[in-house]
Amino acid sequence: MWKQAVAFRGEERVPDEYDEFSDYDLPSYVGSSSSFHKLPWCPDDASLARSKAEVAIVGAPFDEGASARPGSRFGPRAIRAASYLSGEAWSIPLGVNVFQALRCVDAGDAPVVPSRPERAHRVIREKVRRVARTGAIPIVLGGDHSITFPSASAVSEVRRPKRLGMVHFDAHADTAPDLWGALQSHGTPMRRLIEEGWIEGRNFVQVGLRGYWPDEATFAWMREKGLRWHTMVEIEDRGVAAVVDDAIREALDGADLTYLSVDIDVLDPSAAPGTGTPEPGGLTSRELLRAIRQIVGRVDLAGMDVVEVSPAYDHAEITARAANRCVFEALAALAKKRLPQQT
Ligand SMILES: [Mn+2]
Question: Which CATH number is 28's domain given?
Fold first, then answer.
């Protein structure tokens, strides 16, 4: 006690306390690192290849596909910052030390600039392609949901001839033919993925749909293409675990790998106010986190994104925090699979 008191007045320093913690073990808000969980920062091909990463975080800071509230270009930064964990991360639900079992890095952001949306999608696609080519699983932080088109198409391309299925959490189907004439909107990416053949309609499964968009004709198109969807009403009736069980089976029906796309607006606005198009009546964060563990634990995950976090509309980091933990739950479920199976 005496020694600490003296040290506090600056008269003497307790031996070794200055070097007591490594930068990695210091709280996430201390130090200069802005990577996800202070993971190694590998923004270029050479450092990424050297890292031999199994999973790489990628930022896609693009929000020019937003139809209502913008701002998700600041999502990657907010999701990275909303951790407050440091050092090792012991998953209480899964019983695994995430970063001991799984080699993870932060591959930085796609080199997006404002007001060049076509280029932005091209460089996001190239960034995800480069990450996937190393064998790492890209986990992409959006950005608005339009980024799922370049991201999932890149994963599908790199992993060919294996076939990609999709589990898509969202309040909205995002399958419009266009939005006010724009093909690159956050309301269209799923249609483009299917129409261009990156993912087959029958392996495309949506969870959490509700509200008043898209229209009847769009749902007719979805039915024609063999998409399957599970509305919030079905989740209310059957429970999220049973519905997600079906979604996994449907996404894998003919596909080898799974891409998981999480629009944070699948959560109820009370759990995710900071998003582009909030829709009342959604999942709780506890239901979503459980669903992510359930899916990633069961499928062969090829890629993932967490999108539509718009920090300027957030309160007390509720939304950024939920998105951060969506990533953590996926990492924990992947880490769990690396452990020797217990008998
Ligand atoms: Mn969406």
Answer: 3.40.800.10
